[in-house]
Amino acid sequence: MDGFSYIDIFETKGIEYLVIIGFFAVLIPFWIILNKKGRVRQTNPATDGVLTARGLRVPQGLFYSKNHTWAYMEQSGNAKVGLDDLLLQLTGDVSIHELKKPGDLIRKGDLLTEICQNGKTLKITSPISGKIMDANNLLEGLPGLLNDDPYKKGWIYKIKPANWVQDINTCFMAETATNWATVELERFKDFLANSMRKYSTEPAMIILQDGGEICNHPLTEMPDEIWKDFQHEFLN
């Protein structure tokens, strides 16, 4: 045919271009998948079953009490209170036994509620003083909110503070709270090691061999005796 010429791409660089295009067609989707997995691991490093300080949720803007509760002042003037992530990561899934009702008065350090797991309980004291204004009724039917969303949907009570400035004076906030949570995790490791020696609990359930890190929810498999020690020696 006039004006038509046949070019064999195998005799030119055309084949090289096709090879390069094919290479990137395979590489790019593979790279996207790997990068996506990397981002997921970076945002939630605790998903590998090991409890580390880097995996703890410590939102800024909340006041964290030494008894592992938190308080947050709302625009209404009432303060939400709940349990911090470290405590819930240590215990695993728990349910709430409400001990207070709207209208009750409470002082900082008074018994606020109990968390329960298979007959084992921990007593939780209030981080602030004031009047109970509301209880989170969602926790009755959805106790998993405590662990899944402890700082938003998993709050326990709303309290109208009586001595807000004085009460939060001993709390941790922002970077100080993050550093404190790291120290508390190390303190728990020491507590656990002492308790296992005391009760001859099988350490393989709790401590991983590679580096001695703690598995998620270590107290779940622990007997009632260790829960009682945890209450008196760690929480209190």
What characteristics describe this protein?
236 residues, alpha+beta, three-stranded antiparallel β-sheet, 7 helices
Structure description:
- By secondary structure, this protein is of the alpha+beta class.
- It has helices at residues 14-43, 85-91, 138-141, 145-148, 164-167, 174-199, 224-235, and strands spanning 50-51, 63-64, 69-73, 79-83, 95-98, 105-106, 111-117, 120-125, 130-135, 157-161, 214-215.
- The strands form three sheets. A six-stranded antiparallel β-sheet has the order 2-3-4-10-9-6. It has a three-stranded antiparallel β-sheet with strand order 5-7-8.
- α6 crosses α7 (224-235).
- The model is unreliable at 29-34 and 36-47 (pLDDT under 50).
List the helices and strands and how they pair.
Blueprint: H1 14-43, E1 50-51, E2 63-64, E3 69-73, E4 79-83, H2 85-91, E5 95-98, E6 105-106, E7 111-117, E8 120-125, E9 130-135, H3 138-141, H4 145-148, E10 157-161, H5 164-167, H6 174-199, E11 214-215, H7 224-235
Antiparallel strand pairs: 1-11, 2-3, 3-4, 4-10, 5-7, 6-9, 7-8, 9-10
Helix pairs in contact: 6-7
